[in-house]
Design goal:
Distance between the termini: 30 Å
CATH architecture of the largest domain: Alpha-Beta Barrel
Bound molecules: pyridoxal-5'-phosphate, 2-OXO-4-methylpentanoic acid
CATH superfamily of the largest domain: D-amino Acid Aminotransferase, subunit A, domain 2
Largest sheet: 9 strands, mixed
Helix content: 10-25%
Structural class: alpha+beta
Number of helices: 9
Shape: globular
Order of helices and strands: EHEEHEEEHHEEEHHEEEEHEHEEEHE
Amino acid sequence: MTTAQQLSFDVQLSDHARTTAEREQVLASPGFGQTFTDHMISIDYTEGRGWHDARLMPYGPLSLDPATSVFHYAQELFEGLKAYRQTNGSIVSFRPYANAARFNVSASRMAMPALPESAFVESLELLVQTDREWVPTTEGHSLYLRPFMIATQPALGVNYPSQTYKYMVIASPAASYFAGGVKPVSVWLSTEYTRAAPGGTGFAKCGGNYAAAFVAQRQAVAQGCDQVVWLDAFEHRYVEEMGGMNLFFVLGDKLLTPALTGTLLPGITRDSILTLAAGLGLEVEEGRLSIDEWQAGCESGELSEVFACGTAAVITPVGSVKGADRAWTVGDGTPGPVTLKVREELVGIQYGSRPDTHDWIHKIC
Ligand code: PLP
Ligand code: COI
């Protein structure tokens, strides 16, 4: 395989980049994942040759044969991370090597080639440096980076995986994932559908996991909730995670989060919170919690807060829970003090107002 050192990026700048006024109009109200910057990254892979044709090029549509493998068998994976404009003006990302490592874990599960971690990080640096004007200056906003890989072989056989792949990165200015900022979300317990079972792809960030989740997310919305909560595949009793976030439960001075059993995504935000907890005077436990325990804990007051965490969602309080045969409120339904304390610490590190004692901040420019 081509090593990272041998990959050098060809740079082709856009001749139809948005004007400053057009960009500022987008940045005034970016939403989430709706508008993309002027450039993108593309690197191709061919079995036997390795990674080649690394390029930064104008953002634009792809042209692919209708028989291309990804359209039929969903051999695809992605990552999500952000570039932040810090209080001192520099642009940074948060733990990009952790995303690079998870990208390759997902690739291995999907029978796709690993990308050298240094090439992954270099591709992000090049795109963000080129499109740096797209990194929002508004507090709490960021540039969301979406690296992904698709199988590109035009062939319908399923005897072996594609022999060719394309890795890409696109970038999109982002405000809050949930309209309303730190407002608590309501969640729907999905007892009808299963996201992941042991031996499946739950731990991988592959598009198919999300495709299969839309039906449950639609059901959550029909039930008047913001998000679906996934439960274990066997009993639909133990909490796993949410559609694009991990979950934490606050029990006194302890944070409890579902253990990584292979069926949920090992979130980098989750891992960061587990590391930060001690410094915030909180114990941590990676274990399991049933929906009965969740409800009883909220009713007795022992379980005082619940929050969801992820790159896009940052840290979002969960205010109320609904299932086919039950409904309850978490605490008094407003953001709790532990949730806000953890959020302030994490966001403070990302935007540079709190010290980066774990060496998580990666300076881009
Ligand atoms: N769980 C799922 C299913 C996700 O899609 C995400 C988002 O990436 C997460 C959890 C949180 O992961 P991270 O904190 O790395 O963004
Ligand atoms: C992320 O937080 O990066 C995600 O991937 C969540 C999502 C929008 C699917």
